[in-house]
Design a protein that fits this description.
The complex is a heterodimer of chains A (490) and B (290). Chain A is of the alpha/beta class. Chain A has helices spanning 68-88, 91-107, 109-120, 124-143, 173-186, 201-212, 227-235, 248-257, 283-295, 312-326, 347-362, 394-397, 413-420, 436-445; strands at residues 31-32, 34-36, 39-41, 48-53, 58-64, 157-160, 163-167, 190-194, 220-222, 241-245, 264-268, 274-277, 307-311, 366-369, 384-387, 404-410, 428-432, 450-453, 472-473, 486-489. Chain B is of the alpha/beta class and 290 residues long. Chain B has ten helices and ten strands. A five-stranded parallel beta sheet of chain B has the order 7-6-5-8-9, sandwiched between helices. A three-stranded antiparallel beta sheet of chain B has the order 3-4-10. Chain B has a two-stranded antiparallel ribbon with strand order 1-2. The chains are: A alpha/beta (490), B alpha/beta (290). Chains A and B meet through helix 8, helix 14, strand 18 and strand 19 of A and strand 4, helix 9 and strand 10 of B.
Chain lengths: 490, 290
């Protein structure tokens, strides 16, 4: 068959002039304390750690390292705020505080977007158009639930749980903070939140927003640090509810740590989503979907379409078009509005991705990388695809969390389903076809919490998100996301 | 030598129920169930880890077909279980009497078990409408969330309610399309085995419900740790039991549903949230355009 395709030449003859987002309106302090009981405070141990711009390897700020003593203070402040003003407040008034957070975030959106890109390496287009607007929308959505909770669960009386301990990852720092805080607060809980150690800045800026919104002291506490700090939050006996987003390995440890304590928990863990392309799909749109599925946010996405399953008869065409499309992707300065793929979040993560690239080659797969230039300093990974992979290969089974796609083929719908479901994960999936009946068959049979049909990587505050199997427990977003922060009484 | 023309009653062998068949335990082990006078009522199978694993295989095999059955059909099958149980009320009451349950309480328990099956039969084509949603996303997409069965569920049935407790856990689990393996009450196992016979006569596909008898202390961790089980439901344990079960369940991030000791006779002991306990929420997106 004819697999000849016209080459895309987005930059042939035309050069993109640099279009950097300005940073002069943004202030980042030299040093941040812990946000406990309504004010920034020194950490008990007196220690700070650097947070680095992964695109330049330069230090942006120093952030307090919270120890057990600090977590203890944060939990005590959260408890006091829960028993004091927050649980006694009229739900409608509580909701108005959450609305205020949404509004202030909207006002300060560009500042947050710039800081998110500086601290985490994601392209400004994504932080500006996805992360920050969605974070604000999340607060706005859940704010309105505060005084309507009894309508969410027929026959039940909804009650808050108490103090929530929340640990979030570095891939969508502010958005994950919003996913955790908004429903917790709207449901009447108080929180202790620990942002990731490589991306603490927008959470600390969010602390300013919480303060400026006038929330009672202690309702939101933000403690920075690494794994030990997270462990102290999760294991603290004063915490009633644990919410975690991160790797399945850590999720497993948390599930064991809270066993026998009576703490409620929700876990948003890893994924290895299959993007399934049928021969009757709109191929050019599907190729855009593949690119968005795996290269969005450098592939640092738990629901990334990191496996491509393409029907055999169009496999050559799809792969050829994908390679052409990859050649047009711009890797580089996250603050440049032309950039498609920003910096890898940290040196550690870059090392992990590179070890998988080597592993893929060692396993016998064929690696193709876009030939784009990358900056001299900073952490970068070119868009990468592997063909000739087997279902049992580790690059097919394990989450890489980088811009790395493993490509397999299938003949029948049943084979496509079987391959899509053949990993321990079940967070998301994609299907591309023009046949409605086939879409519904696929979306019914893919064992995953979110299925995108003829689209990929879409998010919305009203849309429940969360995994089957080893991708986690519970849902965030929408009406279903309320259950994580409520006790339902008959 | 005494002679009599009185008929010698035929005693039942109490066996396991796995994949629509009634095998003895592969282990050959048993425990003697005795009445208050010490008389042996039955040599009850003491199921092994291997029996449990075979039951999981049977459940896994049966689950997709059961989930694919229409809600209308699943509702009728649950209704059929109730019909079959209604016809055998006296047998269940008599077994409970042997186990020391007072006759009036036994009758009340069987009646409640029948009614509970009817209750959940009625939910088969309704829970989805209560728990689903169409989500008003801001972008140009049609987006909806529905419940789907989590898959294979391992159930440690309540100890104090041999029939009603078991039915109250099994019915909400299977009505949404899950398959299950249930460990019967250790001290009140007779009704559980007879209930398996009822299931067998009720158009429930083999493997959708598997019934084991045996030692909870021995099997609880197996139920919680098996890597091809999606959820574990356990009844009337304490914090120590929760710790043990949840730690074992963490290896494949099993859903863990703990149910406190409950008076299963109460109306509050039946509700659709027990169905949702072993269901997953799936959200589907599709663009709206031309």
């Amino acid at each position: 068959m004819d697999t000849q395709v016209n080459k895309l030449a987005f930059d042939g003859g035309w050069q993109y002039a640099p279009a950097p987002e300005s940073t002069d309106h943004v202030t980042v302090d030299e040093r941040y304390g812990l946000f406990i009981d309504g004010e920034f405070a020194e950490p008990a141990g007196g220690k700070y750690f650097d947070t680095v711009n992964p695109a330049t390897e330069e230090r942006l700020s120093q952030v307090a390292l919270a120890t057990e003593a600090d977590v203890d203070r944060a939990v005590a402040a959260a408890r006091k705020a829960y028993e004091g003003p927050w649980s006694k407040m009229k739900p409608a008034e509580r909701g108005k505080y959450v609305y205020r957070i949404a509004r202030i975030l909207q006002e300060r959106a560009r500042e947050f977007a710039v800081i998110e890109s500086l601290d985490g390496g994601k392209p400004i287009r994504e932080s500006r158009d996805v992360d920050i607007p969605l974070a604000a929308a999340h607060f706005f959505y859940y704010a309105g639930w505060a005084d309507k909770l009894d309508y969410a669960y027929p026959g039940r009386r909804a009650r808050p749980l108490g103090v929530a301990g929340q640990v979030i990852p570095w891939n969508f720092p502010l958005l994950m903070a919003a996913w955790k805080l908004a429903p917790a607060l709207a449901c009447g809980n108080t929180v202790v939140l620990k942002p990731a150690e490589t991306t603490p800045l927008t959470a600390l800026k969010l602390a300013e927003v919480v303060r400026d919104a006038g929330l009672p002291p202690g309702v939101v506490n933000i403690v920075t640090g690494a794994g030990d700090t997270g462990s102290a939050v999760v294991s603290h006996p004063g915490v009633d509810k644990v919410a975690f987003t991160g790797s399945t390995a850590v999720g497993r440890m948390i599930m064991k740590a809270v066993a026998g304590t009576g703490k409620k928990y929700t876990l948003e863990l890893g994924g290895k989503a299959a993007n399934v392309i049928f021969a009757d799909a709109a191929i050019d749109q599907a190729v855009e979907g593949i690119v968005n599925g795996i290269f969005f946010n450098q592939g640092h996405v738990c629901c990334a379409g990191s496996r491509l399953l393409v029907q055999e008869s169009v496999a050559d065409e799809v792969v050829a078009k994908l390679k052409d499309r990859m050649a047009t992707l711009i890797v580089g300065d996250p603050l440049d509005k032309n950039t498609d793929i920003g910096a890898i979040n940290s040196q550690e993560q870059l090392g992990r991705i590179e070890s998988y690239l080597k592993l893929g080659v060692d396993e016998g797969a064929e690696m193709f990388q876009a030939s784009c230039p990358t900056p001299d300093r900073g952490y970068w990974c070119r868009p990468t695809i592997f063909t000739g992979v087997a279902q049992s290969n580790r690059i097919v089974q394990e989450e890489i969390f980088g811009p790395v796609l493993a490509i397999q083929t299938f003949r029948t719908l049943e084979e496509g389903i079987a391959k899509a479901n053949n990993t321990p994960y079940g967070l998301s999936g994609g299907v591309w076809t023009d046949k409605g009946a086939k879409i519904f068959r696929m979306t019914q049979k893919v064992r995953a919490g979110v299925v995108w049909a003829n689209t990929f990587n879409k998010f919305d505050p009203t849309s429940p998100f969360g995994g089957y199997k080893e991708s986690g427990v519970g849902r965030e977003g929408g009406l279903h996301g309320l259950g994580a922060y409520l006790s339902l009484e008959s | 030598m005494a002679t009599t023309n009185a008929r010698v009653p035929v005693a039942k062998t109490y066996k396991l129920y796995i994949g629509g068949k009634f095998p003895r335990t592969e282990s050959g082990r048993y425990y003697a169930l005795r009445d208050a006078t010490g008389q042996v009522l039955a040599n009850v199978c003491r199921a092994s880890r291997k029996d449990f694993r075979e039951a999981v295989v049977a459940a896994r095999k049966a689950q997709p077909g059961w989930a694919a059955a229409s809600a209308y059909l699943r509702g009728q099958v649950l209704y059929r279980i109730a019909e079959m149980l209604e016809g055998r009320r006296e047998q269940f009451v008599a077994e409970m009497a042997l186990e020391g349950v007072a006759k009036k309480a036994a009758q009340a328990e069987v009646d409640a078990a029948i009614d509970r099956l009817i209750y959940y039969a009625g939910w088969a084509d309704k829970y989805q409408q209560v728990f689903s949603s169409v989500n008003p996303v801001a972008s140009s997409h049609f987006n909806f969330s529905v419940l789907e069965p989590t898959g294979v569920v391992a159930i440690l049935a309540p100890e104090a309610s041999g029939l009603l407790g078991l039915v109250s856990n099994v019915a909400p689990c299977i009505v949404g399309g899950n398959a299950c393996v249930v460990l019967a009450s250790e001290s009140l196992p007779l009704n559980a085995v007879s209930f398996a016979e009822v299931l067998h006569a009720s158009d429930v596909p083999g493997g959708v419900v598997n019934v084991l008898t045996g030692r909870r202390a021995e099997l609880a961790v197996q139920f919680a740790s098996h890597m091809d089980v999606n959820a574990v439901v356990w009844n009337d344990g304490d914090n120590d039991a929760e710790r043990e079960i949840q730690q074992a369940a963490a290896d494949n991030i099993k859903r863990v549903v703990g149910r406190a000791a409950t008076d299963w006779q109460k109306d509050a002991a039946q509700n659709p949230y027990l169905i949702a306990d072993t269901m997953e929420v799936k959200t589907t997106w599709h663009p709206v355009g031309s």
